[in-house]
Structure formats: structure tokens, C-alpha cells
Design brief:
heterodimer, A: mainly beta, 6-stranded mixed β-sheet, 11 strands, globular, B: 7-stranded mixed β-sheet, 4-stranded antiparallel β-sheet
Chain lengths: ~110, ~110
């Protein structure tokens, strides 16, 4: 079984401040982990992914995430928020050998000017 | 480069009507998926197809049927629409073993 928990359905940060979006997962086997972003009235697009190797993963638009096995976490960060980062962010997990990708419930990020 | 194409983008149905959502991908991907997105619930998997000729149920398959017509196309059918099926539907595809899904732009369905 696999599942994802995203803490905080809404997060607001000031422009230029640190962005931290939290994700914890559950998987009975080593997981693949993903962050997707959804802008209004659009489909989801991949921000970054962890499959194997380096646990700190860099993605598009200055985002990065760190896979911490001991904490079963994959939190998303960006050092300095930009107005264009306002969107909904989804964490997702896929257990190795499983074709299905399971999504969290999403975190809506608002940037305060 | 079209990627994943869904039709229609918008549809309004009356309770009990039927309809089919069409999805096609041009990336030669093996696996295809149908998700629904509802506020506060994230994306929930309806059905998926790991390869041409195979389909499997996801979390919320009741009230839906699917057809993997060929490697490119994966359709979702509502035989008798209900208001609870009002949602935004996303089709996605992926190469085997990568996990990275490529999404269509979504189909917004309203059932009155």
C-alpha cells in the first residue's frame, strides 16, 4: 500500500521569503517520489522527481526537495518566493513495481506582495 | 508536439445521460491513466492501462468504464451520469518504469 500526506492545504508566504511545502509518504517498498505543480485551469506538470541516487533533487523554477527515508518525507523548498509561484502543488508516490501513482490532496500556495 | 490530448474540454450532462471522454497521446507511452480531481481531495485514480489490451481499476472505478483502443488512445465512459460525477477529469500517460506522468489539460464535466 502507498499513500501521501500533505500538511497544510493552504500556505501563504511573502514574496522573497522561503517556501516550504510538506509531504510525508507511506510505502512498503522503496518509492519513487514526485512533486507536480498545477496553474489555474491547466493540467499538472512535473516539478521534480526522486527515483534513486542523490537524495537532494533539484527541479524547475528553483525548487528542490530532499528525500529523507528515516522521516518518510519529501518536502519541497524554494529559497525565495516569486509571484509566479502561486499555484497548487501535489506530492505523489509510486512504489517500485506498482504502475499506480498516488497523489496527496494538494497545497495551494499564495504569494503575498 | 501535442503530448496528451483530451476531448471535450467542457461538457454539461443531465442525470442519466451517457458520454465518453477521449484521450490520445503521441509519445509512444505504454501506460495511460484516468484521474478525477475534486476540491480538497487531490487526484484520485479511476482506471489505468499498463499496456495495450489491459485495464485495471483504480481507487474510484464505480460508474465508469474504459477502453484501451490501441497504444495511443484510452477512453473513459460514463454510462449513466450522476451529479457525484461532476468533476475535472485528467488523462495522463507514462513510459514504463519511469513514473513521470504527462497530463492532458483536463475535461470539466458538470452533471445536473
Amino acid at each position: 500500500a502507498q499513500s501521501v500526506t500533505q500538511l497544510g492545504s493552504h500556505v501563504s508566504v511573502s514574496e522573497g521569503a522561503l517556501v516550504l511545502l510538506r509531504c510525508n509518504y507511506s510505502s512498503s517498498v522503496p518509492p519513487y517520489l514526485f512533486w507536480y505543480v498545477q496553474y489555474p485551469n491547466q493540467g499538472l506538470q512535473l516539478l521534480l522527481k526522486y527515483t534513486t541516487g542523490a537524495t537532494l533533487v533539484k527541479g524547475i523554477n528553483g525548487f528542490e526537495a530532499e528525500f529523507k527515508k528515516s522521516e518518510t518525507s519529501f518536502h519541497l523548498t524554494k529559497p525565495s518566493a516569486h509571484m509566479s509561484d502561486a499555484a497548487e502543488y501535489f506530492c505523489a508516490v509510486r512504489s517500485r513495481g506498482n504502475e499506480k501513482l498516488t497523489f496527496g490532496t494538494g497545497t495551494r500556495l499564495t504569494i503575498i506582495p | 508536439n501535442a503530448g496528451v490530448t483530451q476531448t471535450p474540454k467542457f461538457q454539461v450532462l443531465k442525470t442519466g445521460q451517457s458520454m465518453t471522454l477521449q484521450c490520445a497521446q503521441d509519445m509512444n507511452h505504454n501506460s495511460m491513466y484516468w484521474y478525477r480531481q475534486d476540491p480538497g481531495m487531490g487526484l484520485r485514480l479511476i482506471y489505468y492501462s499498463a499496456s495495450e489490451g489491459t485495464t485495471d481499476k483504480g481507487e474510484v472505478p464505480n460508474g465508469y468504464n474504459v477502453s484501451r483502443l490501441n497504444k495511443r488512445e484510452f477512453s473513459l465512459r460514463l454510462e449513466s451520469a450522476a451529479p457525484s460525477q461532476t468533476s475535472v477529469y485528467f488523462c495522463a500517460s507514462t513510459r514504463a518504469n519511469t513514473g513521470e506522468l504527462f497530463f492532458g489539460e483536463g475535461s470539466r464535466l458538470t452533471v445536473l
